[in-house]
Amino acid sequence: MKRLLLIVLLLISAGSAAAQDPTPEVTPEITAQATPSPDCGTCHLDVRAQWETSTHASAWHDPEFQSVWTAGGSPSACLECHTTGYVRRTGSYDHVGVTCAACHGETPLTHPDEPEPYSAVVDVETCGDCHPTTINEWETSPHSADMACTSCHTLHPQGIAAESAEALCLSCHTDPLTGYIHNDHPDEVACVDCHWHQGTVSEEHFVSGALLPTGHDSLVESKTCNACHTENDPDWQLISMTRPHTETLPEGEAVGETFPLTDVLMGIILGAGLGTVIVAMIYAVIKGR
Predict the structure, then answer these.
(1) Of 40, 123, 187, 262, whose CA is between 20 and 30 Å from 49?
(2) Which residues in the chain belong to E strands, given as ranges?
(3) At 269, phi and psi to the nearest 5?
(4) pLDDT tens, 153-171?
């Protein structure tokens, strides 16, 4: 009876399986898989030579970074930008420093034999992975309309795309700037001294790791002026207020003169007196009720 029951169960199972739809055959899609970056410098010798002198190449080996990072307990958050291929879950990484794959992505297996050239273009979003504060500043500046990071910065040495910062600015801003602000400063004051003011950002970043402002918004703020004038001339604000001047627009129209300090003080006195009279009148009306 046991054998007969087993045979019946096997027949029922076989019939049930035969009644089901057959499993369709799946053909796997063949795609080029990404692979860890090979030694790009084997072919791109000139690029490698430029990169080896860059801040990206020394992002891990920099003695100051290593000293501060170790003293701070070796926080893993720093490795997201100071190594390549960092995996937060495991704490592992592929390479120390910022290597080719960190910016250009993993190299396909078909490179360099693929029919179409491998695109290694680096966009602003890629830079923003490690430089979010700088990108946020750039987005609020006039430069974001039609200029990317590589419009001013060289890609592999990470320098500026001119012999000096002043030459870089003047390569686009060719029209002479007239007016008090630009004419009154001595020649040794460069554009970036005011428009790209960043104070001691580099040192502070090493201490706290904070992604601090870098001046890429191109704004001239009061702290920019104070950085020079309060140190060199404590009375500069008084001098500025008492020194009448005019500025000339490109069309030749005068902006106007500043008010002398005596006029400013007179206005304050008259305003205070008028305010006192108004308050007294309101008080008299209320008391009369």
Answers:
(1) 123
(2) 34-35, 83-84, 95-96, 107-108
(3) -65, -45
(4) 988 888 888 888 888 988 8
